[in-house]
Prior knowledge:
Blueprint: H1 14-21, H2 26-40, H3 48-62
Helix pairs in contact: 2-3
Amino acid sequence: MAAKAEKKATTHNPEQTAEIINLHPDITRIAELAYYKASNRGFEPGHEIDDWLEAEQEVIHHYE
């Protein structure tokens, strides 16, 4: 009989989780812009990565 793996009890600290989520606040901007790019194309599949990368470049250049 195989030994059962022990589960470690984990505690979640909401403040720590919020800190992790906020590491990259521009992700939301990039995702929204990529969504609008896809929307303008009628959500034609196969361009998701291009939409994301274009949005990412636009957000990055906004800070230059």
